[in-house]
């Protein structure tokens, strides 16, 4: 133990202050920390717990055995059993599973280390460390100080590092743990790959002392000529003037801010060119203070429900959609950059979509920014998936936090028309209470968008029933149904009878079936492209007859990796319900749906 322990009192005072999310980082003054990071695989969490299984970061005395100390010594006698600089590297952003064969199935802890220098441009400025997402649990340390813990694999978070960062030789250490657990969100059981690691961009954000942290600039609910919202300044020290300007609309609205709270505003707007899939107009919007001008590109549109119709800018709209996982199938990896987003959304465009369901968790910001530009309406959801621990209050708080972080990041994107609370959750009192809580929570943050959840149907005396109690609380009644794949006859599907309890727009959030691209045969042979094509033909005929049908997002754009899909030769670890294969080749059913969308009439 000689010299293994030394005291740093600094460890204690600076830990874990929870910090508000900084939004629109894409248009801020940032420096990337993407690139190669050293990593250590640590299945026993040796760098985190001492041999009594007590976390090092909860001890009064600092311990060099804790990996976040990134300890090095010149003393050749001293025992040190880790060394980041002699360990291999991974690319960040990026999941670890796809970067090393030995990590394909790994679920557990990996430590990452990145060293960097940073010269702050003005001594009074502040510096923040921002992560787009880390799956699932991140413990973040800078120069040996704990910045905080973040839970949830698909949302962004940041820390103020102004008092810790140095001009030279900073070491940033992140412990990432993607072990699944029953009470987590998502829970143990999912049908997608549990990609671990620092899966999205990491950046440093330099801001003035007092800066624009967040804002909402959207059309006011129920009014297409008032732009309203709020601005949040971080660290207001005196009365400050903030101007919101939209030059193309001749808007220049100045508000006064004297607290750190959200300050609301409203301004009348004339001659707005509304955002729509046909004309995805985005306006340059500037938020200005004495110290800073922040630009964003924002579209304005209304979205509402009237009886059984969805109205976009007052006109009925049919959601011609497709479900998408955040995966680039051709890399068999998590998607994370604009190039990946272009591949996925351009496929959806080619399919004839005006809408995508981003399943089953919030996707990276490039996806929604690009959807805004391409005119693709979006359903965004959180990973409240299948049977999670509905009775557990921590689980609820975790889900709420993920929802808050998702809405905070994306609330200015016109493309997002639906927040989804959950997918295929089994009805019970506890589940209803859980989801109703999420619905109410969403409404306190954003009352302008529609709320939905992917529900299920059940069959009663030959009739497909949609009567889940949650339907009462949702603006859109959405459900997944797999006639012709998990049950039911395809031949009779077009004549299926439906009993839908609610007079609300109905959206089929999933239907589909698997096919191995290149496998051909008859419609009587599962896994052939012909069977999948027939499944689409029959389902589309059936869907046309469903009362109040307002859209759909079949399952799914592309084959995706899933550890649950084990059939040799056919699946080999892939869910084959994609309309496009993992080599990027379109299957026959792609063209069936494309033709349907191209000819779809609706009013
Ligand atoms: C579902 C789930 C989705 C699965 C899909 C399937 O209902 O929502 O996550 O991947 O079915 O392929 O079975």
Question: What would you note in describing this structure?
Answer:
This protein has about 600 residues and is an alpha+beta fold. The N and C termini lie far apart (about 75 Å). Helix 1 crosses helix 2 (about 365-375), helix 3 (about 395-410) runs parallel beside helix 4 (about 430-445) and helix 5 packs parallel to helix 6 (about 590-600). The chain is globular and about 80 Å long. Residues about 1-20 have low confidence and may be disordered. It binds (2S,3S,4S,5R)-3,4,5-trihydroxy-6-oxo-oxane-2-carboxylic acid. (2S,3S,4S,5R)-3,4,5-trihydroxy-6-oxo-oxane-2-carboxylic acid (GCB) binds near residues 191, 555 and 577.
> What bound compounds does this protein have?
(2S,3S,4S,5R)-3,4,5-trihydroxy-6-oxo-oxane-2-carboxylic acid
Number of helices: 6
Strand arrangement in the largest pleated sheet: 23-26-27-28-29-32-34-35
State the end-to-end distance: 77 Å
What is the global morphology?
globular
Q: What is the radius of gyration computed over CA atoms, rounded to a whole number of angstroms?
A: 25 Å
Low-confidence stretches: 1-18
Average predicted local confidence, pLDDT:
96
Look at the helices and sheets and give the structural class.
Answer: alpha+beta
By DSSP, the count of extended strands is 37
């Amino acid at each position: 133990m000689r010299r293994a322990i030394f005291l740093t009192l600094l460890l204690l005072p600076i830990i874990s202050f929870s910090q508000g999310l900084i939004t629109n980082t894409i248009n801020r003054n940032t420096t990337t920390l993407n690139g190669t990071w050293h990593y250590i695989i640590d299945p026993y969490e040796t760098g985190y717990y001492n041999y009594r299984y007590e976390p090092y970061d909860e001890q009064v005395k600092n311990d060099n055995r804790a990996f976040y100390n990134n300890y090095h010594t010149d003393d050749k006698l001293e025992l040190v059993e880790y060394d980041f600089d002699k360990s291999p590297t991974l690319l960040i952003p990026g999941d670890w599973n796809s970067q090393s064969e030995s990590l394909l199935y790994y679920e557990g802890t990996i430590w990452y280390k990145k060293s960097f220098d940073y010269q702050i441009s003005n001594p009074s400025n502040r510096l923040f460390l921002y992560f787009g997402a880390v799956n699932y649990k991140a413990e973040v340390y800078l120069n040996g100080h704990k910045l905080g813990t973040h839970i949830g694999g698909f949302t962004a978070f940041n820390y103020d590092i102004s008092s810790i960062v140095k001009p030279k030789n900073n070491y940033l250490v992140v412990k990432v743990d993607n072990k699944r657990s029953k009470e987590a969100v998502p829970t143990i059981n999912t049908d997608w790959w549990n990609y671990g690691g620092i899966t999205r961009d990491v950046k440093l954000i330099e801001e003035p002392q007092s800066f624009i942290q967040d804002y909402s600039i959207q059309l006011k609910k129920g009014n297409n000529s008032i732009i309203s919202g709020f601005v949040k300044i971080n660290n207001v020290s005196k009365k400050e003037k903030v101007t919101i300007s939209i030059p193309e609309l001749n808007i220049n609205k100045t508000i006064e801010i004297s607290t750190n709270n959200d300050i609301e505003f409203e301004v009348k707007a004339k001659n707005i060119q509304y955002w729509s899939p046909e004309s995805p107009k985005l306006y340059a919007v500037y938020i200005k203070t004495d110290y800073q001008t922040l630009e964003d590109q924002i579209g304005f549109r209304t979205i509402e429900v009237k009886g059984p119709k969805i109205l976009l800018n007052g006109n009925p709209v049919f959601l011609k959609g497709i479900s998408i996982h955040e995966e680039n199938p051709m890399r068999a990896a998590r998607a994370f950059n604009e190039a990946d987003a272009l591949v996925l959304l351009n496929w959806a465009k080619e399919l004839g979509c005006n809408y995508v369901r981003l399943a089953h968790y919030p996707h990276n910001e490039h996806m929604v920014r690009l959807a805004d530009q391409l005119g693709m309406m979006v359903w965004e959801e959180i990973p409240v998936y299948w049977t999670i621990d509905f009775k557990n209050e921590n689980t609820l708080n975790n889900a709420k936090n993920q929802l808050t972080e998702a809405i905070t990041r994306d609330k200015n994107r016109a493309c997002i028309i639906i927040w989804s609370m959950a997918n295929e959750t089994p009805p019970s009192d506890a589940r209803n209470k859980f989801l109703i809580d999420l619905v109410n929570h969403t409404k306190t943050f954003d009352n302008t968008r529609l709320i939905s959840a992917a529900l299920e149907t059940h069959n009663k005396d030959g009739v497909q029933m949609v009567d889940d109690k949650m339907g009462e609380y949702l603006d859109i009644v959405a459900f997944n149904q797999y006639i012709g794949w998990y049950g039911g006859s395809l031949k009779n599907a077009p004549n299926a009878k439906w009993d839908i309890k609610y007079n609300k727009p109905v959206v089929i959030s999933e239907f589909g079936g698997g096919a191995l691209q290149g496998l051909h045969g008859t419609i009587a042979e599962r896994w052939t492209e012909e069977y999948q094509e027939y499944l689409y033909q029959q389902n589309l005929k059936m869907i046309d007859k469903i009362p109040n049908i307002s859209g759909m997002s079949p399952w799914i754009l592309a084959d995706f990796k899933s550890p649950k899909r084990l059939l040799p030769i056919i699946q080999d670890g892939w869910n084959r319900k994609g309309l496009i294969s993992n080599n990027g080749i379109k299957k026959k059913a792609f063209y069936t749906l494309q033709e349907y969308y191209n000819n779809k009439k609706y009013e």
